[in-house]
């Protein structure tokens, strides 16, 4: 499914254009609007609304949009039912009819060898997650603080005890 075609926008659309396209189409295909329609029309509208929601969720988030664009360019813009992208649960997965796929956040399955690029890419994604960077910053501040306190205590000891050497533990 091509998210850009679903929303009827081009690849360079701004967030505002994405919002406007989604709102317009969501009003047209919202399941509540078709509650009195025939079952076939109601199911069709519900399916279209789910596609619109998935496309909006992917394209409005900068990170998901970048990942989608990378995968889209890597596999071409033609995507049939044989290739499927799934976003949700904090991750994405890709699967094809041959039974293998990839992704992160536990949503992917793969059979076969991992390439070095895939391992590097997964490692890079892990190292650039917000929680990892916040934890690394916190550890850095703690270690820096410990070094400053240790150096300060040694300097203070030397000023209070001139001519003596501190006993190292």
UniProtKB/TrEMBL annotation:
The chain crosses the membrane at residues 132-149. Pfam families: DnaJ (PF00226). The keyword DNA-binding does not apply. It comes from the Eukaryota. CDD domains: DnaJ. Residues 2-72 form the J domain. Gene3D superfamilies: DnaJ domain. Keywords: Membrane, Transmembrane, Transmembrane helix. The keyword Cell membrane does not apply. This is Chaperone protein dnaJ 72.
């Amino acid at each position: 499914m091509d998210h850009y075609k679903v929303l009827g926008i081009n690849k360079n659309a701004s967030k505002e254009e994405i919002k406007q396209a989604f709102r317009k189409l969501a009003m047209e295909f919202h399941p509540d609007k078709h509650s009195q329609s025939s079952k076939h029309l109601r199911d069709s509208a519900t399916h279209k609304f789910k596609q619109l929601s998935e496309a909006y969720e992917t394209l409005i988030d900068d990170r998901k949009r970048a990942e989608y664009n990378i995968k889209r360019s890597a596999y071409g813009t033609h995507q049939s039912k044989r290739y499927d992208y799934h976003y949700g649960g904090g991750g994405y997965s890709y699967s094809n009819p041959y039974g293998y796929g990839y992704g992160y956040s536990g949503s992917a399955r793969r059979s076969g060898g991992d390439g070095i690029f895939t391992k590097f890419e997964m490692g890079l994604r892990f190292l650039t997650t917000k929680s990892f960077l916040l934890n690394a910053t916190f550890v850095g501040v703690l270690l820096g603080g410990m070094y400053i306190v240790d150096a300060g205590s040694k300097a203070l000891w030397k000023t209070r005890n001139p001519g003596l050497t501190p006993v190292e533990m």
